[in-house]
Amino acid sequence: IFGSSKDPYQVQAVFTDGTIFYKDTEDCAVYNPEDFPLMELCTYRDPDGCERNVMRAESRWLGLNIYVSEDVSISRSYSMRQIYTYFELALLIFMLGMLIVILVSFKLTQATWLLTDKVNQMPVSRLISEPYATRELMVTRPADGEIHTLEKAFDHLMAALRTSVQNELFLRENSLKAQL
Q1: 43, containing H or E segment
Q2: pLDDT tens digit string along 20-66?
Q3: Strand order across the 9-15 sheet
Q4: Residue 10 phi, psi dihedral angles, 5° rounding
Q5: From CA 148, how far away is CA 154, in angstroms rounded?
Q6: pLDDT one-digit tens code per residue, 101-157
Q7: Which of 12, 39, 77, 178 fits 67 for a cystine, CB–CB 3.0-4.6 Å?
């Protein structure tokens, strides 16, 4: 697996006296055990100028230090891909959240919109000319709670206004007849 020209990973095994036991053909790095603590990832720039992440393992029984290194660009590209994936996920969650908020708010305000439209479609002149035209179907449902109660109260007020307008017209008409 290690040591191919396209593989960004390299392995080197060195005896404690400095003799190389194994080294990838392309690995030109010279590792010093004092520079690399055991089992910690350290950054190292090899003589070719390539920045590498290096980890050292030690076999005291064999008197061998094993160095495994990877090209830093691998971890950077992985980190960038991970950040990009998190960003995509956050954007997706945000969009779904906004869609849910819009749907819920539309459902919550639908009864209010229907009631507002009902009120806007009833001009006072229509009450005078057509007193019985204001009897319309309910636009809300009992499940709409307070808005349904508000619509029922509105309908009662409209009925009272209609009766008041009819009584006022009747009184004025009779007053004019009496004056004549």
Answers
A1: strand 41-45
A2: 898 887 777 888 888 888 888 888 887 777 788 889 999 888 899 99
A3: 20-23, 9-15, 64-71, 51-59, 41-45
A4: -140, 150
A5: 10
A6: 999 998 888 877 777 777 677 666 665 556 555 555 566 777 777 777 877 887 788
A7: 12
